[in-house]
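quick one, 384 residues, struct below
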Amino acid sequence: MNARYRPSRMIPFNRPTLTGHENQLLAELISGNQTGPEGDFTQQCQDWLTDRFRVPLALPTGSCTAALEMSAILLDLKPGDELILPSFTYPSSATAFARAGVKLVFVDIEPATMNIDPEMIAAAITERTKAVLVIHYAGTSCDIDRILQITEKYNLALIEDAAPAFLSKHMGRYCGALGTLGCFSFHESKSIQCGQGGAILVNNPDLVTRAEIILEKGTDRRRFLNGEVDRYSWQDLGSSYSLENIRSAYLWGQLQHSDAVVRELVKLWHAYHKHLSTLESRGLITLPKIPEYAEPNGHIFWMKANDAHERTKLIAHLKNCGVQAVFHYVPLHSSPAGKRYGRFEGQDNYTSREAARLVRLPLFYGFSEVDYVVESIYSYFNSI
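---
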């Protein structure tokens, strides 16, 4: 590490992934007058996702929120039903179900991964429980095998919010393709992005036809386009959930390079972990612990200060060094909407405490300044 180096401008926390292939595809789309809501690029993305994740159907959507809303409709969740989920997640994970009148039941997390604690799921089940939603935080898989044992025992649907976990794996299987439904995000803050986009993976063959109807504003338009019916009509609830062709072209340019992107991010993730391990051995920080079953995608690198006060000082110090570091979710059960639409079940042993300690460090495709960020962190702890 070079102590004399200082960036000429602020090192951002995130920079949208660019593979260099997007401009060519967008030019093809425009020259071919394919800027309508659907087209060849949307279909190519759908085929790629379906084949890669080996699911009955994968549908590109306008956002991960759209995919989550589709999940609520597909599972027939109704007012009075209960959904168990972690409080440590993004509001979209909850909003998509609260809009359907579902009661949100927040439970605690495991501090080593910041993922939902399977034991807390089991303790929160009631006769009204219809589904469990998990988030693979920072791209590290939840303990899906233990969670599936619980959901199968009680006949509950399992929804994977895999927004941060594109191409992450659990025991060699892709996150998002393990539960009943899986939801991805292709927001610009994610490793693979198209500005704003998402996808839903339908892992239950019985839900495939209905998923296509919900995607098409509640109509059987896809069956019409495939020549299965002579006209299409309103069949079910739905909305404009599909990803239009212009954003699909951009996404297609990224999907084809996604393995290379993830390989680079994983390499950067491990560099952070290696260089910061000395601080952890001195008891100054806590680093992520990767379970044996998990193969993360390197989407987020987080560490924890010893308390919220020290986190604030560390973030301020990094800013003075020209490094943008940020914290993450405010636990949903402590928010106004969380109190209105849900409840916390069991003890909040870790969620609030660990959320108040967590710091996310710059990490994105093409990032080359891990050494300087690490040096800046060491300079903080060496000065106190």
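The mean pLDDT is 95.
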